[in-house]
Every structure is written in C-alpha cells, then in structure tokens.
Amino acid sequence: MPLPTITVRDQQQVQPLHVSQMTIYKQCKIIDAKDESGQSYYIFFHNDQYLNYVRPKKVTKRSHVTHALKKGITLPAPHPLIDATLSSNPQVKKQDFNDLFKKLQTQYNAQETTLIATYFESFIKKEKLAHFIQTLFYKERRDGKWFSCYRIYHLLKDFSPNHPLVDTFSGNLDFTRYDSRYKNNDENLLAKDPIYVEKNLYPYRFQTTTFHQLTALYKSQSRWIDLIGIHITHLTKTKTSEDYKVLVALIDDHFNEEKRLGILKDLYKRGVEIEPLIQDLLYSYVKSERPEEAISLIGQHQISMEPSLTKALLDIEKKKDISEQSISPEGWRTFTLALFESEDPQASEILHEAVSSLLNNHEIPYLSKWIRPLRDFQQAKPLIENIDEMNRIAEDPNQQRRLGELFYFFHQPEKAIECMSWDMELYVEDPQPVQWLAKLYHETGMEEEHHAYKQLYIDMVKRA
User: Fold this and answer.
1) Residue ranges, CATH 1.25.40, the chain
2) pTM to 2 decimal places
3) CA neighbor of 412 nearest in space, from 388, 390, 427
C-alpha cells in the first residue's frame, strides 16, 4: 500500500510530501513526512487543527518534539488514524511564527496558546518563546485573571524552570491557595484545567485507573483519534479480549471495513496475537479478497478451517485472472497442509485447485518438488500420482494424449491442446485426438477451430 501524501505550500511553492508516521502526544500530533529529495518535515497539529510545518535541522534533547517521539503514540504510515488527521487538511500552508501566535490568541485561551507555543522549541529560540509566554502572563494579570496566570505560570515552569518570572511568583499568595486546592484534588478547579489533568495522567496511562481517567477526558472533549490511539497502546500492554472488544467498538463507530482492517493489521504487527483479533483479521482478509494474507495467517497460527471459510478462499481464487495470481506457491502449500493436517473433507479439492493454479506459471518438475510435504497424507495420494505420472511422461512423444488428458484435468486447456495436436500428428488416422481438439477449442472460446475439428472428426468417423 502506498504511503499517504500531503501537499505543503510556502508562498507560491507547492511541494507534495510522503508521510512516514504520525506521533500523538497529549493534545499534539506531529506528522513526519519527506519530500522527493529525502528532506524531512514535521507537520504540527493541536487537537486535529493544523498549526504549522517546519524543516527540522536539529532537535534539542528536552524539547517537546523529543518528548513526543520518545513518550508518545507513534503510528507508522499508512494508518487510518493518519488518514483521519489528514482528511481535513489535504494542503497545509507555511506560516510565519509571529502571524501564527497572533492567530492563536484569537482562537484559544492564553493557557492553550502557551501550550501550543512550547511545541516549537528547537525551531524558535527558547528565549523568544519564553518572552511570548511572559507577555501572555502579564496580559492576563492586567485583566485580573489570576487563575489563568496560575495555569500559564505552571506551563512556563515546566518549559523554562529558571525563567525570572517563575522565581518572582513562586511565593505568590494567590498561587499558594491554588496549590493547596490542586493538591487536594479539588474537582471543580481541576475541571477547569484539563491541560493540567492530562499532563499529570499521561505518564501513568498504562495503569488501569489512570487509563480510564484519560479515556474519560478524551471522550468529554470528543477527541476520538486520541481515544483510539491510547486504546491501541493500552491493548498492546494488556492483550485482553475485553480491551480488544472496547477498541473494536470504537473503530466501528468511525471507520469502514477497509480502514478497520488497517487498524487490525497494525495491532497484529504490535504483537497483539489474541484469538478474537486473529479471527477478525482472518475474516477481514477473506471479506476484502486477500487470500495470500489470509493463508499466511492460517499457517502461522494453525487455524482450524471451517468449511465456509475454505469455500470463501477457494471462491476468491477462482475469481482471479490468470495474469494476477493471488496466492503464491508458499501460500498454497500452507493452505493445503493446514487442510490435510486438520483432515478437512475439502482438502483434496483445494489441492486440485492449487495444482491447477500453479501450473499456470510453473513447469511439471517444479510441481513435483512443491508437493513433497503432502506425500504422507493418504487423501492426497491420487492427485500426487497424477503429478508423478505427468512428470514421468512429459518427454515421451507416445504419451502426449495421456499428458493432454492430465493437463485438462488440471484446468489447463491450452497446454492440453499442444499435447493433443502433437498426438494427432503422430496418429493421423486416429479420430480421438481430433475429438479432443474440437472439445478443447470449444471450451477456450475458439469457435472457428472448434467447428473445423468437429467436422474433421465427423469425416474421419465416416471413413472408418
């Protein structure tokens, strides 16, 4: 599957980028993308709202980006959650940071504007960012918004603990009163500061109680991408059927079958190999007509094949064009071995289809080697004997009619025609190869040849 793309615009220049991954970290999302020359870009979002993009040169060790990449939820592209983030932002425009910060103050409160500003450390001088945060603080102070000042103060303290403003207000009486209420988990106060709540819950998100508190917060804020993201990482830790069911319910609320499959595949790659996921993944592969992936899964987990599943896989293969064979030789071998080992009644039928499919692109000696692992199964012996016979008589000019019959048995009419044509030249008075050719040309849709050989057969019978 190709990587998703996003188009960035800087003044009049437009550049398509290939997305490699997305990191979700608290309220921020960072998409990592590259242009055709390999130049990296970081594209920033706040609660799914596009902010700006940068070309990273050097990222400082204690920056927001570094923390995000180390502690956030990283999703490799392609991924449905990346698609969901990009869907409302197909093209992003480069903004001057001064213009961006002015715009932010019209869209967000001072605390959220402060938080967003801290995302861009490594790309703006820290002193400049700290000064901007200080101006927000003093503006709120002039307006008498001490609670807003207190929240900005703590963000600045996290961002730049040695800033003079931090030292100046460390003993402020209003702040001390807020400190006391925060320490006592004043619910009314904390409800007004979700940024603080998320900051303190996030490091402990793998603990059950904290996880449920975070998911409740995300639900209350309608942050469904973040909600699914945190459920994905939670499930990779717990690997329980109960947590899987909760995640699947969330996925089904927001994605179609194809996108659902994308998330299931990501979970499987993350090592979640629990029974309900494997079963859902298998049936999704079948439903979306991906037999190779379905068969690989069957082989890896020794899945017992239900008759309906076997039939569905066989029907998919029969629908495929010869030019686009859907199942590899290894896939066919995995499939047939699983069927014979489980004593599936359709095993012989599937083996017949496998051999027929493989004969489209492989010679008889290859089939003789391919079928070796099946030789110990009694149920497979009649078909194996046919392949052995084909291998034995393939170069015998006197056995071309029998070889043609066997090719016909394995749904290879074109190869059967070659054999019967050779046989007809050897036995010019024998009407049987002529009769075969009339039949074969009819089945391949070559009606002119069919009628010619049919008439020739009638004439030969009359002369006999």
Assistant:
1) 411-464
2) 0.79
3) 390
Question: How far from chain centre, in Å, is Cα 287?
Answer: 16
> How many Å apart are CA 233 and CA 266, to the nearest integer?
11
Q: Tell me the pLDDT of the chain averaged across its residues.
A: 91
Given a contact cutoff of 8 angstroms between Cβ atoms, the answer to whether 277 and 268 are in contact is yes
Which 3 state secondary structure label does DSSP give 337? Answer: helix
**Residue keyed to tokens 């692992």:** 373
Angle at 269 between CA 264 and CA 273, to 5 degrees: 75
Instruction: For residue 48, give every residue at least 6 positions away whose Cβ sits within 8 Å of its Cβ, in sequence order, or none.
Output: 29, 85, 88, 223, 225
Q: Got the DSSP string for 60-73?
A: -TTSHHHHHHHHSE
Question: Which residue type is seen at 111?
Answer: Q
* Rounded Cα gap, residues 168 and 176, in angstroms: 13
Beta-bridge mates of residue 92: 8
Query: Which token pair is 212?
Result: 């449920």
CATH topology of domain 411-464: 1.25.40
The half-sphere exposure of 300 on its side-chain side, counting CA atoms within 13 A, is 13
Q: Which residues contact 409 (CB under 8 A, 6 or more apart)?
A: 386
* pLDDT single digits (tens) 224-279: 999 999 999 999 999 999 999 999 999 999 999 999 999 999 999 999 999 999 99
